[in-house]
Amino acid sequence: MPISGSTAGRRRGAMVIASAVFCSTGLVAAGPAPGGGPFPPAPVPRLDWQPCAEGTEFDCAVARVPLDHLDPGGRTVELAVVRHRATGPGRRAGTLFFNPGGPGGPGTVQMPQNYESFPREVRERFDIVSWDPRGVGNSTAVNCFATTAEAVAWRTTKPVGLPVGEKQRRDWIDAFADLGRRCELRDPDLLRHVSTADTARDLDQLRQAVGDPQLTYLGVSYGTFLGATYASLFPGKVRAMVLDSNVDPQAWTNHASDAEPRLTPFLRLGSDLGAAATLDQFLSLCGAASTAGCAFSAGGARATRDKFDELMRRLRQRPVGDWTYGRTVGDVVSGLYVVHPGWTDLAGRLQDLWQGRVPPPAAPSPEPPVPVPYTGDEQAGSILCSDSPTPRDPGAYHALEEAAALRAGDAGRFWAWAAEACATWPVVAANRYRGPWDRPTAHPLLVVGTTYDPATPYAGARAMAAELASARLLTAQGYGHTALLNPSACVGRYESRYLVDGALPPAGATCRQDARPFPAPKPRGGVATGGGGKAAPGS
């Protein structure tokens, strides 16, 4: 469930989709080890900040942390870190750490690309720091190919989006089984130490490296699970924590059960239901708009839904160029993540396909101030498969797909296959955390949920708020994945007050997004204009 930097990046991203700093030489606070004892302390990393590139406002550094926090004197891994200093002279309140989701979102790329989305007061008062989690991007990364050409060749062996038909299902399963074998051969020790708990311990070391006595944090999507894990491992170190578009921790960990699960992680989360409900809203609102407002409109909600269903039937039989049914469904799900301009762009692509045209290529993402890293499927998969139990029989996924399609339509098919890579993943995480989630924290947390979210449904925000020992739920009435990228000035004000002063919204607080998805139809006289008569000529 990654959040990428631009509309183009975001629609490709659904998996299938984060102070004046000084060097500290203190020791990390010990957290509980899997056996119940404390983790041994490790030296706090030193951050030598330098401009990421000439002329940029972002600084970069590299932190070294233990591969295994139980063995702080052993192998280390590198974390690539990025910072934007607080912009308000003399008003700095500390450091806000940001995780952009995923799992596997490279913060060194996505924080700079999304920096302007943070509320103005937050940018003024906090240094905003993000990082590529271990296993990802410009950090010590899971990379299961010797060359770029190998990685490109592997991608051609599997269908795009989701498999259709027996042959594609076999190709998909074989491709991910091959990926797992390659990864185990390349660096099995790293694979065992890329769990969310490992990253939470890295985050506590980064907190100490910037000199903050407690953590201020904003995590979106999968980043909410990382935040909940940190709050559980280091409850006394929580200053303020915003969790936006939430992963239900009990569903993610399958309630800490050791039994093989019946459903995949995303089906347990209800991602298929969230995507289906959001798609229904997209089609209804598109149908209520004119074709000038929504290119795919058929003049009404029902007619537009029927048009979409007919397009999906056509694509199953006859792709448009390389736009297969599987690719299109994947594009639809990720295209729902960001309303503006994402929904308008998605409607244009669907209309192109309806008319038998290949949609134009996506606009390139803005260039980040760091080298664009390799972020292959194995990076997200290594984290997902470390944390979240998944059915281990690849042959079960077709039945899971059909069941998901019965309850959630085309979106159900997409989310049923999104975690199949874990069915044949070869490694189990050494130090994962599976709860409890209700440890009292030093300060309460703020949980933000959007009512129509295509990846982490609103039910996940309610579950997160209920599961944590002390949390306040803020409801964003609207659409898309994360309030951060689907702006609401109301949400921004509440988040700013909370992050700066610790002031929570009132219980039951609700906000609306700033702009509706498609332009409202213009009044055309009569009752619509309130005039009570006929429309004037030419109106």
Largest sheet: 10 strands, mixed
Q: Give the class from helix and strand content and strand pairing.
A: alpha/beta
Low-confidence stretches: 2-36, 525-539
> What is the average of the pLDDT values?
90
Q: What is the alpha-carbon Rg in Å? A: 23 Å
The count of β-strands is 10
In angstroms, what separates the terminal alpha carbons?
A: 45 Å
**Count of individual helical segments:** 19
State the share of residues found in helices, binned by percent.
25-40%
Features:
single chain; 539 residues; alpha/beta; 10-stranded mixed sheet; 19 helices; 10 strands; 38% helix; disordered C terminus
Tell me what you see in this structure.
- The chain has 539 residues and is α/β, with parallel strands linked by helices.
- Helix content is 38%, strand content 12%.
- The protein is built from 19 helices and 10 strands.
- It has a 10-stranded mixed beta sheet, with helices on both faces.
- Helix 11 (271-288) crosses helix 12, helix 11 (271-288) crosses helix 16 (397-417) and helix 12 (301-317) packs antiparallel against helix 13 (325-335).
- The longest helix is centred in the first third of the chain and has 22 residues, at 165-186.
- The protein is globular, with a radius of gyration of 23 Å.
- It starts with 6 loop residues before the first helix and ends in a 10-residue tail after the last helix.
- The model is unreliable at 2-36 and 525-539 (pLDDT under 50).
